[in-house]
Write the structure tokens for this entry.
Amino acid sequence: MSRLKLGVIGAGAWGRNHVRTAAGLAEGELAAVCDTDATRREQVCRQYPGVHVTADVADLLGRVEAVVIAAPAATHARLALQCVEAGKPCLVEKPFALSTRDAEAVARAGVERRVPVLAGHLLVFHPAVERLRALVQGGELGRIYYLYGLRVNLGQIRADENALWSFGPHDVSVALYLLGEAPVRVAAHGKSYLQRQVEDVVFLTMEFASGVLAHVQLSWLDPHKERKTTVVGAKKMVVFDDMEAREKLRIYDKGVERPPEYGSYGEALSIREGDIFIPKIPNVEPLAAELSHFVRVARGAEPPRAGADDGVRVVRVLEAASRSLATGGAPVDL
Ligand SMILES: NC(=O)c1ccc[n+]([C@@H]2O[C@H](COP(=O)([O-])OP(=O)(O)OC[C@H]3O[C@@H](n4cnc5c(N)ncnc54)[C@H](O)[C@@H]3O)[C@@H](O)[C@H]2O)c1
């Protein structure tokens, strides 16, 4: 089978990773790159001499079979609609759109034109997240009580989006993917310290109908670089630490038990301290897995793991969280 001709729109700090990955893909071929910035275009021309480089999206669309959109967030919905209109499957970087309305318009257009649209929820392609999901969905952790995520570091400070929209799509998409449900209520607190009205730090809480509580701490103004998710279940607890080079997942056989004969007496609760198990996680680069999957979806060979509907669900949470932020943290029902 011939390699699928891929195009990348936006070859900036993150987009260049898509460019590099697409160029090295077995199932796909980097056919064209579009960027409105002349310096960026020159860089791509120098590094990838055989690739068509343009400032014109329509020019790119005429030369490729599927498109990765890695331009700034404000352009996502418009560019995705343009791709769908041209009949080209597209993978839209996070955040999928900047409003639920725009996200729904993209999802609807994809369904109407039968063009696959993917949400760039990279972490659902992380092998440790896949394993974590199997643990959650397979019941090994028991009933899930709560989970929390930490996504903090120093920089990159953005002016066009706050920490919620910049980092939040990762943790929100992971929470929804792990739990297989969307929250019914969210609340978010945040503060803008470095720039006016761009929150550098956001504390987001999500409540799910199943009773699960999820909390996410997001900041680009923090001394530590942390990428961590902790899931606490009735039987076991798991920590996914993406800053660990090898031992990314730790499964703690720990919990609190109440022997049936003691019923409701708090003093009868007993702490169980069992083994810590570190599973071997395959060494797969999530971005390469995401793009390979995108090629298969574009060919109709498999359904999207993170489709436009998932993009809409995550944007809905972020939009509700923004409303909560604006009111100083008041809960918002979804
Ligand atoms: N999945 C991830 O882990 C991850 C990580 C970082 C960033 N991102 C996302 O990727 C997107 C890009 O982020 P970035 O850090 O690369 O931003 P960036 O500003 O460094 O790069 C954006 C590029 O898009 C170009 N551009 C702007 N408008 C364009 C248009 N209309 N057509 C073509 N090119 C255009 C700019 O010239 C620039 O080169 C954002 O949505 C960001 O949230 C995702």
